[in-house]
Amino acid sequence: MGFLLLCFLSLLKPSSQQFPRACTPADNLMRKECCPAWSGDGSPCGELSGRGSCQDVSVSDAPNGPQFPLSGVDDREGWPSVFYTRTCHCAENFMGFNCADCRFGRFGINCTARRTSIRKNILELSGAEKDKFLAYLNLAKSTISQDYQIAVGTYTQMSNGSNPMFRDISVYDLFVWMHYYVSRDTLLGASRVWKDIDFAHEAPAFLPWHRAFLLLWENEIRKTAGDENFTIPYWDWRDLESCEVCTDEYLGGRHSTIPNLLSPASFFSYWQVICTRSEDYNNGNFLCDGTPEGPILRNPGHHDRTKTPNLPTSADVEFSLSLTEYETAPFDKFANFSFRNTLEGFANPNTGISNTSQSSLHNALHIYMNGSMSQVSGSANDPIFLLHHVFVDSIFEQWLRRHRPLQDIYPAMNTPIGHNRDYYMVPFIPIYRNIEFFLSSQELGYDYDYLTEPVQLIFSIYKYLQGCEYNQELDDKPSEQN
Questions:
Q1: What's the confidence (pLDDT) of residue 453?
Q2: Which pLDDT belongs to residue 93?
Q3: Which Gene3D superfamilies does this entry report, sorted A to Z (predicted)?
Q4: Single pTM value for the model
């Protein structure tokens, strides 16, 4: 990686995006209100400038499935109502906890410009593009979020808001913590937990939730680096026999003498992981507080091959794309002929029949990495998580374009808690419903290089050539005398 680029990035002013810092004081928690002022006009949610307004949160009352039989014991139930019942509702062009950001796909001072950002294959990036991506990750890992903090206690442990328990976190680790928080067990006190719960996996919201998660992560890296053109690349792992990105040129090679550690030639070997000790948190009845817990672990290919015999193939992906149903009852990891369940990796990629004893497609990559990536709560610690999930998102995008589903095919009720159509995604603030990300990436302002429509490309070339001809005509005209 270019040393000068790293030096340049270290000089950039920190600016970033789960609890908005402005909403963590006791007063906000007691009032259950998170409507911070927009700095542009000093009004809550930028209301004076028409950016948004402070409104009551309307939580869906659609019934959940039977997988979580408890009630009133988890801060994530009816998100975000345990913490806040009033948040900013932003106008069409804007988003963010105070409506300061542009909605996905919009840019400019007033968020009126539209642009489609293109995510590319990491192995096809130029050297400069690849170095910039790696440098941005390192910058995000070392930059404290100016906008967000993490909760280090439950609402009950915070004495119902009167004793706030929050902590600063880096931009990168903010998202590691969010992935932990959305998938953690329910703490019932005295080392008792409910394990059969996950607000982002093993059910319909798996793909929309991770789509939103990646967009928010991408957006925060853009703000941190001051580069609105940045996009997260993907790693196309179809038909591979080894980890192409597990080299010091990319995401870190294998240590020469300690196989489950990264090579010291990669700066990723010096990263510290967080939120990997779920049993300790459960036994102590506390949340992950972002404390460093050791280096990234990774030992690709040395996994349990009885559970995951090989990396996914093109045929596996194509079969999943052929499934016409996005989701089927019981809407969890036991669903048959479900595109979501097959792509997530709980169903056989040759038949679509649930088989939880095997890990395929998405799950297979996590198991194959045999380390930090292989544990759900801490998997985002390994930056390969980003490349992997961006490619999974591109497969989701292929399915959406091939089958063009109506939004009402997404289950409205009786799914595992957190996964109904109108449930607000845990733990995002600003708040988003699951259904808001069950639509084409093009409507969210991004696309994939290998999915770009040929017609659009030809049209773009045509317009470019038209512009060239027009400019040539101007050049051929005699210049006017003053």
A1: 67
A2: 95
A3: Di-copper center containing domain from catechol oxidase (1.10.1280.10)
A4: 0.90
